[in-house]
Write a structure and sequence with these properties.
single chain, five-stranded antiparallel sheet, 18 strands, alpha+beta
């Protein structure tokens, strides 16, 4: 039995962020998602460096006995690259990235994981979260201090305790080996997807949408509908027995995917699509080499852009587009996937009938768009989030983004809580907007913010030992000392 993987990759900047700090790689042996952090200048660099360091594994040979060691070494090399770049460029100091990777060899998959990007496995119609988040709230769950439901709205849910970066800490990834079983479907994603879609919805989508391209696109759209305030990246991959026919593959699907280049770089995402039939091994090798060249060039471009943002903050950003990446492909690879469907119309078809069909399709699209717009407006009227208005925490109704001059949200309440009085990590979340279930829930969060500020402003009173009373003297009144609270670990 020969095992292979077929996959689809998508990434979206989201509805709030100005740039995409996620990176990903997908090839016939390696799947990888990295979510960068470290501010406007460092997150995209960190994730791109991680991808560029680990991606060469896709073209290397190894066995099931040494694959885990090779993957662990690649992650360590990525950490060294991050340290060297951070020391060479002061503006990149403190950058880091999550990493979740799967490496295929024979009938096994090696996994490396750090941070809160996730890997899910759909097997026999049942979804399982394979990775465990390296976050503060997960630590609280593991120690029984909060429930999973409480973790979803915990103010420190974004604090990551283990990432790949230039920190003076000995942090290592979780490493494991798993069976590559035909029929399995894997999902690797950043928290911009898992944080905005319910587990049950992810399970249903992976189970019911057989086509990989549609499945990955649906997941991105669901995350956007859920709020989309973070970058969103996902890889959906099927494990196949190449000796058996693929039940989710048909000639129609192959034709629909022919428009996708074999190697692509979109934003900070580099990946290789499955090869069309008829591509020989020599061409496949050339395409794989081109893919790695794109990943390397992508990293250099991202680093240059980050430095340019620091030196010239007023200049508009530029990112590599699909056309830029496609131009870097060898001619044979480009020709293998170039298909002009506009010229595929049969010569015998009546032109009037074709025009009528196009008009009808246009009308149908307009009707669908109008219906979708009404549905989104109705759904948006029930959405609430916390944001900032004139320096104070405010409640908004709608979506936290704008379309040109059109704002998709409305301010409905401004509190007396000043954002600058909040802890730094909470203030950062408010500036990025915090999604809430209802207006009442928003008011509860604001009341909690106010209480936290009041608690912090109360001076601590040191306990004293009562002296031995003097005969005839009036004893001093006792002072109650609040119980000390358990210190929380600092997030990175």
């Amino acid at each position: 039995m020969a095992i292979a993987i077929r996959f689809s990759t998508r990434s979206d900047v989201g509805l709030v962020r100005a740039n995409n700090q996620d990176s990903a790689f997908a090839g016939d042996r390696l799947l990888l998602v990295a979510d960068g952090m470290g501010g406007h200048a460092g997150g995209d660099v960190a994730s791109a460096l991680c991808v560029a360091s680990i991606a060469p594994l896709n073209n290397q040979t190894f066995t099931s006995s040494n694959m885990l060691e090779r993957l662990g070494d690649a992650v360590e090399n990525a950490r060294i690259d991050l340290v060297e770049h951070a020391r060479a460029t002061k503006t990149l100091a403190g950058m880091g990235t999550t990493v979740t990777a799967l490496l295929l060899s024979e009938n096994n998959l090696a996994m490396a994981h750090m941070g809160d990007s996730r890997a899910y496995l759909l097997r026999d119609g049942k979804l399982t979260q394979v990775t465990r988040d390296h976050t503060f709230v997960q630590h609280l769950i593991d120690t029984g201090k909060i429930t999973e439901a409480e973790a979803e709205v915990h103010p420190q849910r974004s604090v990551v305790m283990r990432v790949l970066g230039d920190f003076e800490l000995d942090l290592t990834p979780d490493l494991s080996i798993r069976e590559a079983r035909p029929g399995d479907r894997w999902l690797l994603c950043s928290d911009g997807l898992s944080g905005f879609i319910r587990f049950e919805t992810i399970e249903q989508t992976l189970r019911d949408v057989a086509d990989l391209e549609l499945c990955s696109e649906y997941l991105i759209q669901l995350a956007l509908r859920g709020g989309g305030s973070d970058n969103i990246t996902c890889i959906v991959a099927d494990v196949l027995d190449t000796d058996q026919p693929d039940p989710n593959f048909s000639p129609e699907m192959a034709a629909s995917r022919a428009n996708f280049p074999v190697a692509q770089a979109v934003g900070s995402v580099a990946y290789g699509d499955h090869l069309p039939q008829g591509i020989d091994s020599a061409e496949s090798a050339a395409q794989a080499a081109a893919l790695l060249r794109i990943a390397h060039d992508q990293v250099q471009e991202v680093i240059a852009q980050a430095q340019n943002r620091v030196d010239h903050p007023d200049q508009p950003e530029q990112q590599l587009g699909l056309s830029d990446a496609a131009q870097q492909l060898p001619a044979a690879a480009s020709a293998a996937v170039a298909t002009d469907f506009d010229d595929a119309e049969p010569a015998t078809e009546n032109k009037k009938a074709s025009l009528g069909r196009k008009l009808f399709n246009t009308f149908l699209i307009l009707v669908l768009l109008a219906g979708a717009g009404l549905g989104i407006y109705s759904w948006g009227s029930k959405q609430y989030f916390l944001g900032v208005y004139q320096g104070n925490v405010a409640v908004f109704n709608g979506f936290p983004q704008s379309l040109g001059p059109l704002h998709l949200s409305e301010k409905i309440e401004v509190s007396q809580v000043a954002v600058d009085d909040l802890p730094a990590f909470v203030a950062k979340q408010v500036y990025s907007t915090i999604r809430v279930d209802s207006r009442a829930h928003a008011q509860e969060r604001i009341a909690q913010f106010a209480q936290d500020i009041a608690d912090q402003s109360q001076p601590e009173i040191e306990p004293t030992t009562d002296p031995t009373p003097t005969p005839g003297a009036t004893p001093a009144p006792r002072t109650s000392v609040p119980a000390a609270t358990e210190p929380s670990p600092e997030g990175q």
